[in-house]
Amino acid sequence: MDILQSSIISITATILSLLFCGFIVHFQIRKLLSKHGKKRYHPIGGTIFNQLLNFHRLHHYMTDLAGKYRTYRLIGPFRNEIYTADPANAEYILKTNFENYGKGWYNYSILKDLLGDGIFAVDGDKWRGQRKLSSHEFSTRVLRNFSSVILKKKVANLAHILSEAANSNKTVDIQDLFMKSTLDSIFRVAFGVELDSMCGSNEESKKFSDAIDNANAITAWRYVDILWKIKRALSIGSEAKLRDDIRTVDAFVYKLIQSKTEQMSRPEADLYLDTTAITLSWFIYVLCKYPHVQEKIAQEIKEAATGKENATDIKDFAANVSEEALEKMQYLHAALKETLRLYPAVPVNCKICFSDDTLPDGFSVNKGDLVSYQPYAMGRMKFIWGDDAEEYKPERWFDGDGFFREENPFKFTTFQAGPRICLGKEFAYRQMKIFSTVLLRYFVFKLSDDSKIVNYRTMINLHIDGGLHVHVFHR
């Protein structure tokens, strides 16, 4: 009965939210049309109603709008929301006028229950202090060497599980395995804690992983649910679930790393591990869809790892993969880049405009507007990448002479750019290369069902909805 009553209250609140939004949006449009007559504003792509109705396919919806307008507005009850796929605008927001675009109170209020005062949710001195600390940690050679050893052990454990699956002809959810493996890795590297969730012996780590995924999704929902604060105050609907998920996260992390809680936000590490686990999952997906790419990478790995082909087993091979060998694998690097272009771990990144401004495209934005650049949409724009923008094509990352070519970071915004560029970028690439090298050296991956549509779950991160189920074969 309590569940039914809660559902009725939640549905009623949603209907009231829609009606209230309609009134406010109508008021905002009239207000905007009568204000600043000489200013030029980006074309209206829709309202937050459209985001609400298209939430299950949000990034498809916004990619369609980006293809039509490049930069557009969605009219909301309290502010305009500007979304851009224009590299010039992205550079202006992320670098040229960096100080005028930050998380602001609006983003912080939405994110703080999940991320606390972590580096991904704050501005100003709090951000600078954590940035300095994190920069030191990621640049330490000792950490890099130690993390490589840990990553090689974890991928060897994962390979053992995949080998058993191949022998028994069982399908596996490779996204779930990547998430567990990277969860194990990050806690071992950052906190010296062995979770052993790869073996399934730690039920607490499973609850933690599920809770943080659900909290991630509910936090994303807050961006389109204008009544979320009321729901939180009443502890009903999605906000009641979020509260329970955060409690699970807190209990798990505080139990394991009490001595570190002041140095690192609760699930902050999860966003770092998400980058690699999510990307590796989409990477396996595209390799299944493009088997010729999978074979080309496997051949490159075999050639680059010359001298290790006589390794006694997978564990031995993994332990002896060198930085030099990883550097030689330029096609692997390009294939990972291409995966990130089409399936960025963070599909949209939101900022707040702190004072009235004009973007490089000549259109105005007002103080308090939400201004976002869209890595997911940008990766699919023909005006940026050419007519084959939606095709998975690692070759696009090479110049005419066959040498790898980096792209403008404001065109390829997966890791942000400018002062807030992701500090874990190189760590993520190293982990993805180590995992890819070992797994593709010994296994072939195929989708368990080629006819099944693989899609994302709308969250802050770009998780594969329902996981990625694959068949694994010995190479």
UniProtKB/TrEMBL annotation:
Q: Which UniProt keywords apply?
A: Iron, Membrane, Metal-binding, Oxidoreductase, Transmembrane, Transmembrane helix
* The keyword Lyase belongs to this UniProt entry's keyword annotation: no
Q: Which domain of life is it from?
A: Eukaryota
Keyword Transit peptide present in the record's keywords: the answer is no
Pfam families given in the database record: p450
Can you tell me where the transmembrane regions are? 6-29
**UniProt-listed InterPro entries:** Cyt_P450, Cyt_P450_E_grp-I, Cyt_P450_sf
Cited Gene3D superfamilies: Cytochrome P450
The record's listing under CDD domains reads: CYP86A
Cofactor section: heme
Which family is it part of? Belongs to the cytochrome P450 family.
Name of the protein in its database record? Cytochrome P450
Biological source species: Datura stramonium
